[in-house]
Amino acid sequence: MNTAYQQLRSIFARISRFNHLSAIAHWDMQTMMSHEGSQARSEALAEIDVLCHQLLCDPKVGVLLESASKETLEGADEANLTEMRNTYRRAVVLPDALIEARSLATGKCGFAWRTQRPANDWVGFASNLHEVVKLTREEAKIRAEATGVSRYDALLDLYEPGMRSEELDRIFGDLKTWLPDLLRRVVAKQAPNPPLPLQGPFDPGKQRELALKVMRILGFNFSAGRLDSSAHPFSGGVPQDVRITTRYDETSFMPALFATIHETGHGRYEQNLPQAWRDQPAGLARSMGIHESQSLMFEMQVARSTPFLQMLHPLVVTAFGQSPALTEANFIALAQRARPGLIRVDADEISYPLHVILRYEIEKALIEGQIEVDDIPALWNQKMQDYLGIGTEGNYQNGCMQDIHWTQGAFGYFPTYTLGAMYAAQLFQAALRALPSLNGEISEENLQGLSGWLEENIWSKGSLHRTDKLMTDATGEALNTKHFRAHLERRYL
Amino acid sequence: MNTAYQQLRSIFARISRFNHLSAIAHWDMQTMMSHEGSQARSEALAEIDVLCHQLLCDPKVGVLLESASKETLEGADEANLTEMRNTYRRAVVLPDALIEARSLATGKCGFAWRTQRPANDWVGFASNLHEVVKLTREEAKIRAEATGVSRYDALLDLYEPGMRSEELDRIFGDLKTWLPDLLRRVVAKQAPNPPLPLQGPFDPGKQRELALKVMRILGFNFSAGRLDSSAHPFSGGVPQDVRITTRYDETSFMPALFATIHETGHGRYEQNLPQAWRDQPAGLARSMGIHESQSLMFEMQVARSTPFLQMLHPLVVTAFGQSPALTEANFIALAQRARPGLIRVDADEISYPLHVILRYEIEKALIEGQIEVDDIPALWNQKMQDYLGIGTEGNYQNGCMQDIHWTQGAFGYFPTYTLGAMYAAQLFQAALRALPSLNGEISEENLQGLSGWLEENIWSKGSLHRTDKLMTDATGEALNTKHFRAHLERRYL
Ligand SMILES: [Zn+2]
Ligand SMILES: [Zn+2]
């Protein structure tokens, strides 16, 4: 007879096989699917979601978890059991009726948003968002009661397990004391010498070739993954077959190039998650913040550094020919330019956290019931003025309607972007200490040292440790904002 | 309370949603999947296969089928219930142990075949095939006992429901009286003027452009499907999103072009299956023979006809430039060339049925226990000599080891290729009677008349009628070999 833990392993392995098909079908939907396939695909994906939910929430799983907790397990198995338990509790706590209502409301809100945003239709959007917020508050209440943390923290924990808003308040509070000022100083410093703008068009075929070349330099394993294009860049698929995407803009090669580098970071993490745990919860990426730290490690710490840009420059010239905007100095200036703007996804690494803090403050107050949906536009405008010096009054589409996250009920997600940026800075500093010649290696297309360090300290750990232990083991301390600040000051001042 | 039939509809709709994911993942495996994704993909597909088998074989389904047979149903629902019943009976009759043993044996045989075939290793291959045949005989015995037909017929019925070997013996017996002689006469007629061979290389990008252009002419719906490339051309995906593939050979554009046309025929059938029945058994393609009739309708009846080739010729010249081998006359001669050869998949439409009859005779005797695996090579050589005038002694790789079908236990499949060719000839004659200007339309890139006729008579019928009724409704008679003979004589003599 198998132990309870062994039986749980089989159940979770089975769910992971269904998740494999779901992941591939999701990737296909964004990259390959024909227009008329959309309805049937959504139904098929919903069906397998329901199946996985049922398999996970089977009362038998609860009983087995109970029994397994009395069995003697090795360290890694113990960690895996913990992840199983967390996964189970998160899934089982919500009543089916709420899951269904949320799925309907987010589906409706997200679908309408696609046309409401370009139409700047806040009133129409708000009425849908109201329902999503109402249901997400119910969800947060239930999760909070089950876990004993605040409502917002109960949602935050879904994306960044172990993180609490108390800590975020401290971290983001610190950033707010120096980041707006740093941004102003960098903008002032860069103002006298604005870089020449790129002169397109840039052939998408050549952009793709360059992207593939850079992925190879960054160590992406093309026997276990591929690059395609989609409306929004993402990283999907399964660890054995990672599917990253980018999007080609003929007027500038920079967005596709840096999006590819970003997604390559996500992809390398997935490709190098611990092989022995691939079909188990312990084999999954640790958190959304750690995931983002790997993409930002490649995009921000490595690829926008001067040594990397210097190495990259000749490849860019080979791809697109010489031009005044493509001198080495101008190319570097374009890649390291800081400019406050309205749109989060277009933001440079200095202003990006301010977009995140703004959203964090609004969504936390919203979930905790301190504000209502109708309060969002005024707050948005005010905080944009305060943090970035740009107002958004009446401009909903490039203000509070710009992101898809809230339409999907993903409150608590935004902080992980900036946690990722800070984890990345701290990890890169630790890697530099371990590998003193790292910057030289990077300038010679050699990412092996860094890859080895990341594999040893992050990738191969999957979810075997909690985030704080992962960070402490890797860097000698828990998350510390000073590394991010030092990084920005070093690069931009 | 839902009726039993309504409950069955829900169960079959759910299975069809899982089949959607399986179909996309299968397509992905042949077109997109990374090398290292293979193991995890096989496991995921096996898992969903097991799930669908369990859902279908649930004793509840048997009880519901029993109850539903006492409910009053409309004609189409009655047909759907019949298809449900057949699907259930076919699935439920095999013991799980046999399914598992068969899956292991065919997996091993097919995997080894990939290297044994190029190595001409008959002895190694035979030892694996022996096990596959043994298990397929067991399967045939069980199916025969359950359905009251002969063992071979019980397998044949899986691919061509309603067809019996008695009828095949009659049909193939007829073909054997005139086809070898017709082939000899056509070869003799073409011998004095052999066409000039094509001079490559032919750029795959240009081949793809031409293939897409021809798919558009043939009416393929690109909002509900796409063209990609794979090692072996196939048609997959789902009716809402049909995935066809081709394979580009730089030395000749003809294989990719005609493979694309062939798969477009399969694809158009799938795209135009009855919308109202898409998630039900009645909405599936009628049989493998009818499926092949649609691909051969497009490839053989339409695309290799002189009017179509005349219309196609300028497109080919536009794609690849003028050359002595690309005069209109030479191009047509290349597309209509008849030459007996060793390889079934390379055969022209006159010799193709002889390859099929040979395989039919051998596999029927094998399943009925009249011969053994070790008897195959000698029989193959003998029949190749008799039907096509070419021996295969000692040449296993291009003789009895050339096809994948038997390695997969797919005994009873081969006849559907030639049934398809004969259905196609008969259907095209009926379409010509209904559309007297059809050949003129084809020469003007106008396939609308034919498409409308096929949609009305075949595509929109799905599995709502039995094959014999489908053919009689469409053509006024059951399958009659005279149309195929008339077609070949008209085109080639
Ligand atoms: Zn990211
Ligand atoms: Zn075919």
From TrEMBL, chains A, B:
<keyword id="KW-0479">Metal-binding</keyword>
<dbReference type="Pfam" id="PF02074">
    <property type="entry name" value="Peptidase_M32"/>
</dbReference>
<dbReference type="InterPro" id="IPR001333">
    <property type="entry name" value="Peptidase_M32_Taq"/>
</dbReference>
<keyword id="KW-0378">Hydrolase</keyword>
<keyword id="KW-0862">Zinc</keyword>
<dbReference type="GO" id="GO:0004181">
    <property type="term" value="F:metallocarboxypeptidase activity"/>
</dbReference>
<feature type="binding site">
    <location>
        <position position="292"/>
    </location>
    <ligand>
        <name>Zn(2+)</name>
    </ligand>
</feature>
<comment type="similarity">
    <text>Belongs to the peptidase M32 family.</text>
</comment>
<keyword id="KW-0645">Protease</keyword>
<dbReference type="GO" id="GO:0008270">
    <property type="term" value="F:zinc ion binding"/>
</dbReference>
<feature type="active site" description="Proton donor/acceptor">
    <location>
        <position position="263"/>
    </location>
</feature>
<feature type="binding site">
    <location>
        <position position="266"/>
    </location>
    <ligand>
        <name>Zn(2+)</name>
    </ligand>
</feature>
<keyword id="KW-0121">Carboxypeptidase</keyword>
<protein>
    <recommendedName>
        <fullName>Metal-dependent carboxypeptidase</fullName>
        <ecNumber>3.4.17.19</ecNumber>
    </recommendedName>
</protein>
<comment type="function">
    <text>Broad specificity carboxypetidase that releases amino acids sequentially from the C-terminus, including neutral, aromatic, polar and basic residues.</text>
</comment>
<dbReference type="GO" id="GO:0006508">
    <property type="term" value="P:proteolysis"/>
</dbReference>
<keyword id="KW-0482">Metalloprotease</keyword>
<feature type="binding site">
    <location>
        <position position="262"/>
    </location>
    <ligand>
        <name>Zn(2+)</name>
    </ligand>
</feature>
